[in-house]
């Protein structure tokens, strides 16, 4: 990897330390979320900022110099912009590609021009009420992400969770599960409990805990919640009739299912078909973690090479629906111990891809092997293309997509001979291509895609929440 002339680690840290307050000010005062090729800079340490720049390499292999980011963001701040999702890395790459015919300051002014001069304090209308129906693995991660997103008073705001009461100390136990997680570590903030009002207070934000057995009989307005987006992460209902029960409760506007839904519900993979969500869509689904991981990669490959047919094999961490030890289970094989076995099972992800990418209808098959790890999975894409391809060009194409394309928040790319599954814990991308594992032969390729099937998927869900709420800021550039 090349190093920018005159740069060293110490100087990069110094520039990073100057970047941090500007990033924070843009986020809290202007609603601007700063990224470097899809990597958020919000709340990072100086070392974290440097690392984000290191892994956001340009096509020539050169790191992005934090000095350029500092100059760019200083010009952005001077423009007093309104809310935006700003990718500094992509903007500077575009500036470089033009031969730097204009100054970086002028480039920054041009990129931010659609929202320049629109800076203002956050208002109530900038927020949207969100209710989590269920508070399991995905529900608690959604809570963490939503709490981070609402720190600047804008965007989706977690107002309540709905659960069945689990007995004595229910509230304390649920707060504890939010505070500590064996896979994802401790919650980054403070959590207290108000037992009298049934509140979990996270980072001074009150979250109403509502105990209910019926999704159709809750008056959310009694808690000051209106026009809410209910995120059903129980998986109990997957059809329109069942999920419509939520709409019968007072104060609900839309429903999002965190699982594949049955027709005619729209299965949304953010970045691929989120623009098909219409204003009058009251129920949509976020498909599955595997579908979200592979669909962006498949689209990039299909657009470039044309996929004739393929097979998707997922090596998937065990989930709550499996048994820890052998016991009765309504599903085949899933009754056998998840902690002791590799368990062959079915996956609907291959068929589900066509709901987001209709051009791949009937071209993919799939299967899954559950393995004794708690999180992070892998999809092996065995593909036959319309034309021959070599490993280097295919990898370069995927790597460029992870840096410069509109799917840079969905696709990541890595080349390292040392990585294993735990290295991808906490990734907010839908999938990460392992370039060193790529195999090609003629018009055939095998592509390996890692994915944090909990955290990466949860970020995709939250992006859909933002789309439904109309709070997703414009993407620049």
Characterization of this structure:
The protein has 477 residues and is an alpha/beta fold. The chain folds into 3 domains: 9-115, no CATH class; 124-258, NAD(P)-binding Rossmann-like Domain (Rossmann fold, 3-Layer(aba) Sandwich), CATH 3.40.50; 290-453, Dihydrodipicolinate Reductase, domain 2, CATH 3.30.360.10. Helices cover 30% and strands 23% of the residues. It has helices at 9-30, 46-55, 66-78, 88-97, 104-112, 137-149, 170-179, 240-243, 289-305, 349-356, 391-404, 455-469, and strands at residues 32-36, 39-40, 84-87, 127-133, 155-163, 191-194, 199-202, 205-211, 228-232, 252-257, 266-267, 283-285, 307-317, 343-345, 364-371, 377-385, 411-414, 431-434, 439-441, 444-451, 475-476. The strands form 3 sheets. Strands 6-7-8-5-4-9-10-12-11 form a 9-stranded mixed β-sheet. Strands 13, 14, 15, 16, 17, 18, 19 and 20 form an 8-stranded mixed β-sheet that branches. Helix 8 (240-243) links the parallel strand 9 and strand 10. Helix 3 crosses helix 5.
Give the strand content: 15-25%
Question: Whole-Å distance between the termini?
Answer: 26 Å
Rough outline: globular
CATH topology of the largest domain: Dihydrodipicolinate Reductase, domain 2
Helical fraction: 25-40%
Give the CATH superfamily of the largest domain. Dihydrodipicolinate Reductase, domain 2
Counting structural domains, the number is 3
């Amino acid at each position: 990897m090349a190093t920018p002339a005159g740069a060293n680690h110490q100087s990069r840290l110094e520039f990073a330390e100057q970047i941090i307050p500007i990033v924070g000010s843009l986020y809290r005062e202007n609603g601007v979320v700063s990224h470097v090729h899809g990597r958020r800079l919000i709340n990072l340490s100086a070392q974290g900022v440097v690392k984000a720049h290191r892994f956001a390499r340009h096509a020539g292999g050169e790191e992005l110099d934090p000095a350029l980011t500092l100059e760019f963001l200083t010009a952005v701040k001077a423009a007093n912009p309104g809310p935006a999702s700003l990718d500094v890395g992509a903007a500077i790459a575009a500036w470089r590609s033009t031969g730097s015919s204009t100054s970086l300051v002028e480039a920054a002014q041009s990129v931010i021009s659609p929202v320049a001069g629109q800076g203002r304090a956050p208002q109530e209308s900038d927020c949207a009420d969100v209710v989590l129906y269920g508070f399991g693995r995905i529900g608690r991660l959604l809570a963490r992400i939503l709490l981070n997103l609402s720190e600047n008073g804008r965007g989706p705001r977690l107002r309540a969770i709905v659960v069945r009461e689990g007995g004595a100390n229910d509230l304390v136990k649920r707060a504890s599960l939010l505070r500590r997680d064996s896979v994802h570590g401790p919650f980054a903030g403070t959590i207290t409990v108000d037992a009298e009002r049934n509140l979990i207070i996270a980072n001074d934000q009150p979250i109403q805990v509502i105990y209910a057995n019926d999704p159709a009989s809750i008056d959310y307005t009694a808690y000051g919640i209106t026009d809410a987006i209910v995120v059903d992460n129980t998986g109990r209902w997957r059809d329109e009739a069942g999920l419509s029960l939520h709409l019968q409760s007072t104060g609900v506007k839309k429903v999002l299912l965190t699982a594949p839904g049955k027709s005619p519900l729209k299965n949304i993979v953010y970045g691929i078909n989120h623009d098909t969500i219409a204003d009058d869509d009251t129920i949509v689904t976020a498909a599955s973690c595997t579908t979200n991981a592979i669909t962006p990669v498949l689209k990039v490959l299909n657009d470039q090479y044309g996929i004739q047919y393929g097979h998707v094999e997922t090596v998937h961490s065990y989930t709550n629906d499996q048994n820890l030890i052998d016991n009765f289970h309504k599903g085949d094989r899933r009754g056998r111990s998840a902690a002791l076995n590799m368990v062959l099972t079915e996956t609907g992800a291959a068929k589900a891809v066509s709901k987001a990418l209709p051009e791949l209808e009937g071209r993919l098959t799939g299967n899954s092997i559950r393995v004794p790890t708690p999180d992070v999975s892998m999809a092996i894409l065995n593909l036959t293309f319309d034309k021959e391809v070599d490993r280097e060009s295919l990898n370069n194409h995927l790597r460029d997509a992870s840096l410069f394309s509109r799917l840079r928040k969905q696709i990541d790319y890595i080349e390292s001979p040392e990585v294993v599954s735990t290295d991808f814990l906490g990734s907010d991308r839908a999938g990460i291509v392992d370039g060193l594992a790529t195999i090609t032969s003629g018009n055939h390729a095998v592509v390996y895609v890692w994915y944090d099937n909990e955290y990466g998927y949860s970020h995709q869900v939250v992006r859909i929440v933002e789309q439904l709420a109309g709070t997703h800021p414009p993407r620049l550039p």
